[in-house]
Amino acid sequence: MADFKQVRSWAALAVLGLVAASAQAADVKIGVAAALTGGAAQYGQAIRQGFELAAEQINAAGGIHGDSIVLLVEDDQGKKDEAINTFKKLIHKDKVLAVFGPTLSSSASAAHPIAQQAKTVAFGTSLTVDGITQVGDYVFRNSVTEAVVLPETLRKAVAATGTKKVAVIYGNDDVLTKNGYENFKKALDDQKIAITTTETYAKGDVDFKAQLTKIKASEPDAIVISTLIAEGGPIVAQARQLGITQPFIGGNGLNTPRLFELAGERSDNVWVGGPWSSSNDTPENQQFIQSYQAKYGKQPDQFAAQAFDAMHILAKGLQQAKPSGDVNKDRAALREALPHVTHTGATGAFRFQQAIDKRGKPAGFDAVQTPVVTLTQNQQYVVQK
């Protein structure tokens, strides 16, 4: 009798094991490659938090047809080789249905071909460099390109300030900052704004007084800047220390509360273009901000907002794709469903538009969204209508 009970106990444990395995197999695994350490960590950490908040909300509302989203997060360190390694691991070992990331456009250019070759959706939330989606039809992004954002930012700043000539400063060793410079240069030419001087710096620089002294001597009406926040904050602060009072005009890299931490009271009079602002009072945005503050105890930034919206966009695609448990089949179904998703979230109304590659053939999918232009006042971003 004891032997029979023991056998029955083992059988029950085996059934429980099968149920647990089945439940685990039903999880919808999504990869995240983000710069959690290194120079871009301030962006990567915010991105991770945006994803986690959205996944928590989606799962609380029933997940994907009853199955929970599970995020597998890897640190790409803001480096190309690490981005390649994380994409390979997430796609080939972890068998995720899609991969968010990487954080930086330079890393994406190296990692996204891996996803395209494996027919796995790669979804960028912070990638604004032109041409990212030309890799192929499995590459998506909900980040509005610099080619869309920067001309509109310049136009509004020039109209408000009467600017006729500008000095330019940009990072010359990063894909994002160089692409930003190129888009600003084109916009300046198109809007017939003269350039008094062009100065450059490299990642990791901390002293910008030599460049700023030249800028001051050139007597511009404003300063156009293409930068990441690690250098951008100190540039703004040091400019004010040197008595440069003219407005700065920049893009996504300055759209973070970190600017106020780095530049403090000297952070006023900076024009910033991006897809999101904490000052936008739409119900969707205010709900996001309140939820983020409740969970993390701090203000979100653009990068958290874009990740939050991206997770909800992907979830809508997954709902339409109806994952079956067959990874290759589900990856293909998600790819077919995702282009048709529309969403109104923290960053506003959103839809995808298919990009065209250099050969004139359909490629991946870019964001269609209206840029938001803000001006920093009293350490806040104020939306400029």
TrEMBL record:
Residues 28-353 form the Leucine-binding protein domain. Keywords: Amino-acid transport, Signal, Transport. Coiled coil: none annotated. GO terms for biological process: amino acid transport. Residues 1-25 form the signal peptide. CDD domains: PBP1_ABC_HAAT-like. PANTHER family: LEUCINE-SPECIFIC-BINDING PROTEIN, PERIPLASMIC BINDING PROTEIN OF ABC TRANSPORTER FOR NATURAL AMINO ACIDS. Belongs to the leucine-binding protein family. This is Branched-chain amino acid transport system substrate-binding protein.
